[in-house]
Amino acid sequence: MTLPALPDESFRRVLCVVAHPDDMEYGTSAAVAKWTSRGVDVGYLLLTRGEAGMPNPPEETARLRVAEQRAACDVVGVEHLTVLEHPDGVLVYGLDLRRDICREIRRFKPDVVYGTGYAVETPYGFDQADHRAAGLATLDAIRDAGNRWVFPEQIDDEGLEPHTVRWYLTTGVTDATHGVDVTGEPLRRGVASLEAHAAYLAALPDHPAPADFIPKFSAMSGKAMGVEHAVLFRAYDLQAPPELPTDPEAG
Q1: Distance in angstroms (rounded) separating the CA atoms of residues 71 and 242
Q2: Number of CB atoms found within 10 A of residue 182's CB
Q3: What is the per-residue DSSP string for 144-210?
Q4: CA distance 222 to 232
Q5: Dihedral sign (CA 243, 151, 135, 198)
Q6: pLDDT score for 1
């Protein structure tokens, strides 16, 4: 069965929450490029500065990676970039992380939040611990943001308001529900956004060139949609009526 296109014509503002600089650039940024070209306001929230990702001294690495992330954002039309300073490599799921993500949701007021997966095992092997912590905290922070009695100091002291998110998106590999056609210019910009992390990629031994592997993966995803290149998502409409279980014995 061909996957349907994500109903993103209604998207107005999307917040993407990831653990590290470069996490958005391994394919997802091509979808971001498609959205921003249509006037969708996309913001990135990075939970760490990626300081543990290179052999350089951590502070030097952090400055370099944040600068490269800013350049990557510019390529795909993302103006709103927030980088927090949770420790890279040992990101901890908990109230502090949920609080910070909740604050950004209430501040940016997205109708869509994208978060990374939170499963231990993926089709590509065991996922990195920071990614799992970020994914689970993001999922919980979406609900937190709409409840005025959760982190009420953000409302009482910081002047924020509860905010309800309509859509939750996460990466779809084997369980995708929808896709975004990124054929052409969006894919080109997506590749260029990863190329903006030049110093980081140069520090990774045997890392393939972005132009060599991102189009191959997006072409595989495109087959699921019946297009040349695509980015796949698992999409949840959080305001849709719940699907009630049916009685298998009912006639």
Answers
A1: 41
A2: 29
A3: HHT-TTSSTHHHHTT-------SEEEEE-SSS--EEEE-TTHHHHHHHHHHHT-HHHHHTSTTPPPH
A4: 8
A5: positive
A6: 77
Cβ distance 91 to 44 under 8 Å? no
Distance of CA 82 to the CA centre of its chain: 13
pTM of the model: 0.94
Provide the pLDDT for residue 246. Answer: 65
Q: What are residue 46's DSSP bridge partners?
A: 18, 83
Tell me the average confidence (pLDDT) per consecutive run of 10 residues in the chain, 251 residues long: 93 98 97 98 98 95 98 98 97 98 98 90 79 97 98 98 98 90 98 98 94 96 97 94 66 48
Q: What is the predicted pLDDT for the residue at 244?
A: 67
Distance from C-alpha of 63 to C-alpha of 101, rounded to nearest angstrom: 22
One-letter amino acid for residue 80 of the chain: H
Q: Distance between CA atoms of 179 and 235, rounded to whole angstroms?
A: 9
How many whole angstroms separate alpha carbon 135 and alpha carbon 137? 6
Determine the Cα–Cα distance for residues 76 and 33; give it in Å rounded to an integer.
Answer: 5
The total number of residues written for the chain in this structure: 251
Pairing of β 13-18 and β 41-46: parallel
- For residue 42, the SS3 value is strand
**Structure tokens that stand for 191 in this block:** 């590749």
Q: Is 11 helix (H, G, I), strand (E, B) or coil?
A: coil
Give the pLDDT of residue 243: 73
pLDDT on residue 250: 55
Structural contact between residues 87 and 133, judged by C-beta atoms closer than 8 angstroms: no
In 3-state terms the chain splits into helix, strand, coil percentages (rounded to 5) of 40, 15, 45
